[in-house]
Structures are given as C-alpha cells and as structure tokens.
Amino acid sequence: MWNALIRTHHITSRKKVAKLKQAASAQAVFVLLRSGGSPGIMYVEGSKDGVEDWVGDVQRLRYKDYQLASRPAAVSQEHSISSDIHHVGFFETKSVKDFGHQMQQRGVFALWRKAMGYASDDERL
Q1: What's the predicted TM-score (pTM) here?
Q2: Is the distance from CB of 72 to CB of 52 less than 8 angstroms?
Q3: What is the percent of the chain with per-residue pLDDT over 90, rounded to a whole number?
Q4: Are 42 and 35 in contact (CB under 8 A)?
Q5: Contact, 43 vs 5, CB < 8 A?
Q6: Terminus-to-terminus CA distance in the chain, angstroms?
Q7: Whole-angstrom Cα Rg for the chain
Q8: How far does Cα 85 stand from its chain's mean position?
Q9: Is residue 98 part of a domain?
Q10: Each residue's pLDDT tens digit, 91-116
C-alpha cells in the first residue's frame, strides 16, 4: 500500500470533483477529499502505480496553490485498522475535523498532522 496527501487553496468545482472521482475509480484507489472551502485536502491510498497516476491526474487539473504535502510513499500505519475501513472508493467530507478523524481511523494521523504543518518532527503525539 502507498499513500499521498495533497493540499490546495480550496476544492469547490464540482466538475473537477467529478474528474477526481472518475480517476479514483480508474486507478482503483481510496480517496478522501475535504471539499467546500479552504483548505482543500486530498488523501489517496492504494497501489504504487495507482497512487502515482492519481496524483498526476490531480496535477493536470491545475488547482490553485497545489502542494504535494506528502509525496507518494509506502504506508506506515501507526496501528492496525479495523476490517470495515474502505480500501477503494471516493469519499468526501466538509470539515477538517472529520478529515482528521478519518486519518486517525486509517492509522495515518501523525503523517497527516506533520504534512499539514500541525506538528513538528520532534513533537510527540
């Protein structure tokens, strides 16, 4: 499993969201999107090729203030995740708080906090 985290100024265009959903389906990856305002956050998880291809699809959409906050890399989970966690699909949330909660459930909360600038390298959670 590989993952990546992307941060943008905002995600409001429903046409672009539809293209992101289509790309997630084509690449057979899990995508969590924080849309509706600032900041726009995208998390992708799946095979190495799927994650890299999906990140490329996002880059081609030319989002304002696009930042690859966490480059595609092998997933390093903090804890085991429950069996009811989705491994493929496209999901949206409207709040950063819910996004963070879902990152916690997926076992990548520390990665998310660091990539978003909420925690430093030497801060312990």
Answers
A1: 0.89
A2: yes
A3: 77
A4: no
A5: yes
A6: 24
A7: 13
A8: 15
A9: yes
A10: 999 999 999 999 999 999 999 999 99
Q: Please tell me whether residue 86 adopts helix, strand or coil conformation.
A: coil
Whole-angstrom distance, CA of residue 111 vs CA of residue 37: 22
Q: Indicate the number of domains in the chain.
A: 1
Quick one: pLDDT at residue 86? 77
Residue 94 lies in a domain: yes
Q: Is residue 121 part of a domain?
A: no
DSSP 15-82: HHHHHHHHHHHHHT-EEEEE-SSSSEEEEEEE-HHHHHHHHHHHHHT--TT-EEEEEEEE---SS---
Q: Which domain holds residue 108?
A: 2-116
- Domain for residue 105, yes or no? yes
Are 54 and 72 contacting, i.e. CB atoms less than 8 angstroms apart? no
- For residue 19, the domain's CATH number is 3.30.70.100
Tokens 């590989």 appear where? 2
CB 43 within 8 A of CB 89: no
What integer is the mean pLDDT of 74-87? 77
